[in-house]
Amino acid sequence: MTVLSVNVNKVAVLRNSRGGDEPSVVAAARAVMAAGAGGLTVHPRPDQRHIRPGDVRDLAVLARGRVEFNIEGNPFAPPRGGYPGLLALVRETRPQQVTLVPDGDGQLTSDHGFDLERDHAALAPLVADFKAAGARVSLFMDAGARNLRLAAAMGADRIELYTGPFAEAFAAGDASAELAACSATAAEARALGLAVNAGHDLSQANLGAFLKGVPGVSEVSIGHALIGEALYAGLDATVRAYLRIIAAS
Residues 209, 213, 219, 222: is their CA dihedral positive or negative? Predict the structure, then answer.
């Protein structure tokens, strides 16, 4: 069954807006784990505007032996200030998975996947480094991306489908074209030996339709919508609601 990995970045955003330690990212992670989530996701950025390296270290200890830990990040972003770089964090914390994302400093959130024709030569040695650190490697990819064979050739284990366009089309009332593109790209990836994850703007409203349209998804990483919904219903109830959707799909 598809694993639900909860991205706790938004908890850190709220904490950082005030300073101090509340709300606690670790306490939130404990709550989603107790509710049955199968994974935790974090996306530390060099500007440390939400999840910080210290959070990554704390959550790695919490997750170890209990749920999968997934660290997302830009492999090309150099160390700076208190940010040691993605590879250094992965080597230190030993997550089960690292998801490589081409997000720049100026992006509010991840909004596109890799261009493998342009990026594969630079990515290939980094993929090898992350795998040598013991992590499964997933590449953030757009639906309809060209040359997925390059992802397989460089040794990636999975792709994560960027589902923002699907979510936008779903909200507008017709996601059939975006869903078909996601399904086709997922089928191509699996034919190449790559497992398929998905994430970005997935919610209780659209997750069921997505999973029915794109069968065989290994993991969904959900943060923004889930944390927002939990403001009304609570983390435990919200995580359990997502797990029911996954089970029904």
Answer: negative
Residues recorded for the chain: 249
Given pLDDT bands bounded at 50, 70 and 90, which one contains residue 104? low
Please return the burial class of 65, using the count of CB atoms within 10 Å of its CB with bins 0-12, 13-18 and 19+: exposed
Q: Of the candidates 144, 82, 89, which has an alpha carbon nearest to the alpha carbon of residue 112? A: 144
Q: For 44-69, write each residue's pLDDT tens digit.
A: 999 999 999 999 999 999 999 999 99
Query: What DSSP string runs through 81-149?
Result: TTB--HHHHHHHH--SEEEE----TT-SS------HHHHHHHHHHHHHHHHHTT-EEEEEEETT-S-TH
Query: How many Å apart are CA 3 and CA 246, to the nearest integer?
Result: 8
Tokens of 110: 């991840």
What is the model's pLDDT at position 110?
61
Active-site residues: which are they?
43, 72, 200
CA neighbor of 189 nearest in space, from 124, 141, 132, 237: 141
Domains of the chain: 3-248 (3.20.20.70)
pTM: 0.95
Q: List, for residues 125-151, the tens digit of each pLDDT value.
A: 999 999 999 999 999 999 999 999 999
Q: Where are the alpha helices (DSSP H) in the chain?
A: 9-18, 25-34, 53-63, 86-93, 116-132, 149-153, 164-172, 176-191, 207-213, 224-233, 235-248
Q: Is 10 helix (H, G, I), strand (E, B) or coil?
A: helix
User: Tokens 């994974």 correspond to what residue?
Assistant: 39
Helices 25-34, 235-248: axis angle to 10 degrees equals 40
